[in-house]
Design brief:
Elements: H1 2-16, H2 18-28, H3 35-44, H4 54-61, H5 85-104, H6 110-118, H7 121-131
Helix pairs in contact: 2-3, 3-5, 5-7
Length: 136
């Protein structure tokens, strides 16, 4: 009986964390995002609806230039380093892991393999990082 009473608060805590566990599971399904990256993203971006698009989120992190477009004319600003440095670093490390995996198994990521044949490694590295803007 004592163990059942002790397990009740744990069960309630587990039920309360269930939506967050689902979010972490979804984030971890993205190539290059592991447990550390998923928890960093979930902790940093608590409300993804605050951003109009994934591109706005990526600009907030500092991965892509901020866009100030008006009247159909596209004006790109500079890439700011004002976002979360830790999150940006985690995404870059994850993208680097994906690129190394693509080098060893080219059939898994053929588009990255073709890109690596044409461009330098560090230029290609930012491609998957910018794709991670589609996280939310």
């Amino acid at each position: 009986m004592a163990t059942a009473a002790a397990a009740a608060p744990l069960a309630r805590a587990r039920e309360k964390c269930a939506p967050q566990r689902l979010t972490l599971k979804r984030l971890r399904s993205i190539p290059g995002i592991g447990l550390v990256g998923a928890t960093a993203i979930a902790a940093t971006i608590t409300d993804p609806k605050a951003f109009r698009s994934g591109r706005d989120m990526a600009a907030w992190i500092g991965l892509v230039p901020r866009e100030d477009s008006t009247g159909g004319k596209q004006k790109l600003g500079q890439i700011s380093k004002r976002g979360d440095r830790y999150l940006r670093r985690i995404l870059v490390v994850g993208a680097c892991a994906v690129l190394r995996y693509a080098r060893h198994k080219p059939e898994k990521y053929p588009w990255l393999t073709r890109l690596l044949a044409r461009k330098p490694f560090k230029v290609v590295l930012i491609g998957p990082v910018r794709i991670h803007r589609n996280v939310f």
